[in-house]
Amino acid sequence: MFSNSRIAHLDMDAFFASVELLRYPELRGQAVAVGGRSVHAPTEQADGSRTFARLRDYVGRGVVTTSTYEARALGVFSGMGLMKSAQLAPDAILLPANFDAYHHYSRLFKAAVATIAPRIEDRGIDEIYLELSDHEEDSRSLAQRIQKAVFEATGLSCSIGISPNKLLSKIGSDLEKPRGITVLTLEDVPTRIWPLAVKKINGIGPKASERLAKLGIHTISELAGAPQELLVAHFGSSTGHWMHRVAHGIDERPIVVESEPKSISRESTFERDLHARQDRSELSGIFTALCMRVADDLKRKGYACRTVGIKLRYADFRSVTRDITLRHGVSDGSRIRQAAGECLKRVPLAKKIRLLGVRASGLIPVCEVDLDPAAAQAELPF
Fold first, then answer.
1. For the chain, how many structural domains are there in total?
2. pLDDT tens digits for 156-193?
3. Parallel/antiparallel/unpaired status of strands 50-51 and 263-274
4. Both 46 and 128 in a single domain?
5. Same domain, yes or no, for 184 and 116?
6. Beta strand 32-36 with 93-96: parallel, antiparallel or unpaired?
7. CA 45 to CA 85: how far, in whole Å?
8. Which residues are catalytic?
9. CB 173 within 8 A of CB 203
10. Residues contacting 236, CB < 8 A, separation 6+
11. How far apart are CA 312 and CA 48, in angstroms?
């Protein structure tokens, strides 16, 4: 079934951190965590040198966006709380995230890859799948050529896994980082895939890993050897049969070259809980910025939206959402802000807020819709 199929997964190496190292090359080889606030931006001294914040300086509840491989060697990984990371690596450099730069370099590396392999499935800011079945060049040479194109366009490195399917290619791209090239066949599954932990399978997260561990299943080999009936009994028919197939390296998902987005959203988690009245000015600024970023995303992708929604998460971690469907499609920030403001009027604002988000859905190509004429900005409840 897979003899003629060749799919690659390309993953940029420590992408956000690597972009920062382009800006601050003096940090190469050092432990660096990205995820601080703007106050943690480097300060330039009179002699032209820079002073950098350290993880030990951080106070708050932010999380690590990404880290260099040197920081990972100290136990600092993405998603980890910054204060917990400071206990592991107090002297590591702390930098604020710069998402505009990350999106810029994301566009650059994808454009470079497209000159060689144009059939691309976009999986996020730093990873893509490539359809390579029609290329006559051998896999390793082709991967080297793609890596060279990415580096010349961005100055950044990437790792590539190539196999008959998406499952094995994604696992492979992580096996020899950084600057890795891993070529796998189905015959390699027992020797190279089975010894790995079950969490290496994309789709088996921490909770599923814990449940499998209680069944005595820790490696992919043990998952492959588990009776299907056992997996179905504990995870249900669909997931149980899926686990059995992927443990044997079977994945029939095709490359999806073009996909229509269902929604576009932006959200912000605050460093401290904010109150609608006491912190009205700060909340209003954040809210407006989120609406403008959603509008920028819509315009960049060529869409208008018919539905605008908001999401609030309170200090007690309870969440509430509201949305409004409009008569006309909108794509400009002021109209999105007005619609989102109407949604805000329908939620309780007595409790402090820890997260605020804005979402655009019901997307329509902007060329196919009559846009709503600009309207006055509504007064917000904060």
1. 4
2. 999 999 999 999 999 999 999 999 999 999 999 999 99
3. unpaired
4. no
5. yes
6. parallel
7. 27
8. 127
9. no
10. none
11. 43
What residues are paired with 130 via a beta bridge? 8, 120
Provide the sign of the torsion angle of the four alpha carbons 345, 308, 100, 79, taken in this order.
positive
Phi-psi region of 351 (alpha: psi -120 to 50; beta: other; left: phi over 0): beta
Mean pLDDT of 46-74: 90
286: its two tokens: 């954040």
| 320 domain-assigned | yes
Residue 197 maps to which CATH number? 1.10.150.20
Give tens-digit pLDDT for 113-169. Answer: 999 999 999 888 899 999 999 999 999 999 999 999 999 999 999 999 999 999 999
Asked if residue 317 and residue 220 are part of one domain, the reply reads no
Q: pTM to 2 decimals?
A: 0.68
Contacts (Cβ under 8 Å, ≥6 apart) of 167: 201, 202, 246, 249, 250, 251, 253
Burial of 41 (0-12, 13-18, 19+ CB in 10 A): middle
> Is the dihedral angle over the CA atoms 64, 259, 176, 154 positive or is it negative?
negative
User: What tens digit of pLDDT does each residue of 198-230 get?
Assistant: 999 998 988 999 999 999 999 999 999 999 999
User: 282 CB contacts (<8 Å, ≥6 apart)?
Assistant: 274
CATH number for the domain that contains residue 309 = 3.30.1490.100
Q: For residue 263, how many other CB atoms are within 10 A of its CB?
A: 14
Name the residue range of residue 224's domain. Answer: 190-247
Which parts of the chain are beta strand (E)?
A: 7-12, 32-36, 43-44, 50-51, 53-54, 66-67, 93-96, 120-122, 127-131, 158-163, 181-183, 263-274, 303-314, 319-330, 353-365
Burial 213-228 (b: 16+ CB within 10 A, else e): eeeebebbbbbbebee
